[in-house]
UniProtKB/TrEMBL annotation:
It is found in: Cell membrane. It holds the Pfam family EamA. This is Drug/metabolite transporter (DMT)-like permease. GO terms for cellular component: plasma membrane. Residues 141-274 form the EamA domain. GO terms for biological process: lipid A biosynthetic process; lipopolysaccharide biosynthetic process. Keywords: Cell inner membrane, Cell membrane, Lipid A biosynthesis, Lipid biosynthesis, Lipid metabolism, Lipopolysaccharide biosynthesis, Membrane, Transmembrane, Transmembrane helix. It comes from Rhizobium mongolense. InterPro entries: EamA_dom (IPR000620), EmrE-like (IPR037185), Small_drug/metabolite_transptr (IPR000390).
């Protein structure tokens, strides 16, 4: 993988960790997730007139992605209600690239070099190591995390292919960002009522705008990278966001880190180095 692609994907991983930290610090994670999704749509709108429309073959992928993104956010909320984030998040983000690595040969007819395969598996191993510090999680939480890993792997395939056939990965990303917040807010209003949602938006809109900009930029970089490198490799490297999340949790949120976190950080960093050398 070229160095410029690696650096951009790592920057996207940092943005991913940042907007996740914004949601974690919020008072209502479900509504904050909807706000972040909406913030991404708002950030996308000013750029749409200056970009070409995605090719007609990409629109079914955009529609499918919106449904999958909606399912992803719902499963994230359910998994966090059922178990500790230290168990749920590593399982979701670590198992997804494993699934992609195992199936990309069948789905996309992509083959990884020996170094890329070792680097990908090393990053996944580092991410899954984080789950050891939260081994007391419920079976229900684990099941939800694994189901969501399948959803993540699926929308990664959908968007990776969609970005390639769209003719412009940036245009695809921005158009893809418009529909998920509509679904998320429609669901939130049906469950909580318009007034409760409006009040939350009034006091937390800035959280959604900042987080949404980071979210759309992070995912846009990843989709662009998938047009330059194998999807499985990009998907694994993108999950180094957990490494950035660990740094944020210790330096910004002042959380205590167990030895498992530091071990995971070393393994993840080693995987990124192997990807470059491979």
């Amino acid at each position: 993988m070229p160095l410029d692609v690696i650096l951009l994907v790592l920057f996207g991983a940092f943005l991913h960790a940042t907007w996740n930290a914004i949601i974690k610090a919020g008072t209502n994670k479900s509504l904050d997730a909807a706000l972040v999704s909406a913030g991404g749509a708002v950030a996308a709108l000013p750029f749409l007139p200056f970009l070409p429309l995605p090719q007609p073959t990409a629109w079914p992928f955009i529609g499918a992605s919106a449904v999958l993104q909606f399912a992803y956010f719902q499963l994230v909320a359910a998994a966090y209600r059922a178990g500790d984030i230290g168990l749920v998040y590593p399982l979701m983000r670590g198992c997804a690239p494993l699934l992609i690595t195992a199936t990309s040969g069948f789905v996309l007819n992509e083959s990884l070099s020996g170094g890329a395969l070792i680097g990908t598996m090393t990053i996944c191993a580092g991410i899954l190591t984080l789950a050891f510090e939260a081994r007391s999680g419920s079976k229900h939480a684990i099941m939800l995390a694994l189901v969501n890993a399948c959803v993540i792997a699926t929308y990664t395939y959908v968007d990776g292919i969609g970005a390639r056939v769209s003719g412009n990965a940036v245009s695809y990303t921005l158009w893809m960002a418009l529909l998920p917040p509509v679904l998320l807010f429609a669901w939130a209003i049906s469950r909580r009522g318009l007034l409760a949602v409006a009040i939350h938006v009034r006091y937390n809109w800035w959280r959604g705008l900042i987080g949404g900009t980071g979210s759309i930029a992070s995912y846009g970089v990843a989709l662009w990278a998938m047009t330059k490198a194998p999807v499985a490799t990009v998907a694994a490297l993108r999950e180094t966001s957990i490494l950035f999340a660990l740094i944020i949790s210790v330096l910004v949120l002042k959380e205590k880190a167990s030895p498992w976190r530091y071990l995971a950080g070393v393994i993840i960093a080693s995987g990124g180095l192997i990807l470059k050398l491979g």
